[in-house]
Amino acid sequence: MLYPAELRAQSILAGYSNTGRNDYNLPGLGNKERSSRFRKGFDIIEIAGGTYIVLAPGLVGPILVNRAGQAYPDTMSTMSKITLDDLRSRKRAGKKFSVLTCYDFATARVMDQAGVEVLLVGDSAGEVVLGLPNTRGTPPNVLLHLTAAVRRGAPNAFLLGDFPFECMQMNDNARIDWARHFMQDAGCDALKVEVTGQDADLVSALRDADVPVVAHLGLLPQHIDPVTGYRARGKTVEQARELLEDAQILEKAGAVMLLLEAVAGEAARAISSRTSLPVIGCVAGPHCDGTVVVLHDMIGWGGGHPPRRVKVYANLADVMRSAFTAYVEDIHTGRFPTDAEAIHMNPGEYEKLVSAD
Ligand code: KIV
């Protein structure tokens, strides 16, 4: 299906190839990259290989098109940019939003097309991507690169970075520097930090440094007790009151959102109904404004991560395993690659090559 802006792109590109007019350089683009502005608000930027990025008022995000003006369908985003204000309005209107963890460009692109509003590049990457035993060892620079990749794949989603354990051990200045890297270099919209009410100063310092903080409360995987393990929080009135108090302290300190992990549903409900901040639940029942699950859990991908209580929507490990098994068989039996998948020499060249032997 061609979207109206694609149709315009098609005719404009035709005009562009006929006349080759009005080229000018855009700041930040290399020599090869050119743009022609044909109408107010409508840009076509040529990148290498006859591929163009089209930015147009009729589109919710940039799309990639070829010289004939045909869009590469998997580059089409379905969303307009999600902002903090959008999430706040959703809370006010009682409209839920979806959150998924994401760790790479290709998956981010698919999530963006599916309309997932918030993407969290969690330090769970250490477990599910790097195979580490817990999230404590997730290296900040690795997480930063993964976060930037997700931003490239999902330009319109609300991108939530995660402050790794190693950064939490640094001095105040170094923490702020790292938080700025996540915001400015990786393109985050906010940064999630595992905290309690005792970390109000850190939250305020980050707010003062223009880093919007999502306060992660409840079960804090960076502080898992190796003996007691992953235990739910907020199951008693005392625990629920403590969480409620922490939430209020952190809201006052400047947090822009809360994330409650492994918190009893009733406690999460009490917290969510007493704050104007959007609240994301992670195994925290149905009363939060948004819900996050770890990608690998919900698509049955495994990955050395302790499975949480989630609905499983696919069994990707099975799908991938059968594809890999079929591939191994094809290689062993010679079914792939065949001559049909080969690149061929120009006619007559092979004969010249072997006749020289
Ligand atoms: O790192 C992560 O993926 C998380 C979620 C489980 C909330 O913190």
How is this structure best summarized?
This protein has 357 residues and is α/β, with parallel strands linked by helices.
Structure description:
With 357 residues, the chain is of the alpha/beta class. The chain folds into three domains: 4-75, no CATH class; 84-298, TIM Barrel (Alpha-Beta Barrel); 316-355, no CATH class. Helix content is 38%, strand content 17%. It has 13 helices and 13 strands. The protein has helices spanning 4-19, 84-93, 105-114, 125-128, 140-153, 165-168, 172-185, 200-208, 237-253, 265-273, 295-298, 316-333, 349-355, and strands at residues 23-24, 34-39, 42-47, 51-55, 63-66, 97-101, 118-120, 158-162, 190-194, 213-218, 257-261, 279-282, 290-293. The chain has an eight-stranded parallel barrel, surrounded by six helices. A five-stranded antiparallel beta sheet has the order 1-2-3-4-5, with helices on one face. Strand 2 and strand 3 (42-47) form a beta hairpin. The longest helix has 18 residues, at 316-333. It is elongated, with a radius of gyration of 25 Å. The model is unreliable at 1-5 and 14-40 (pLDDT under 50). Residues 101, 120, 122-124, 135, 162, 259, 261, 282, 292, 294 line the site of 3-methyl-2-oxobutanoic acid.
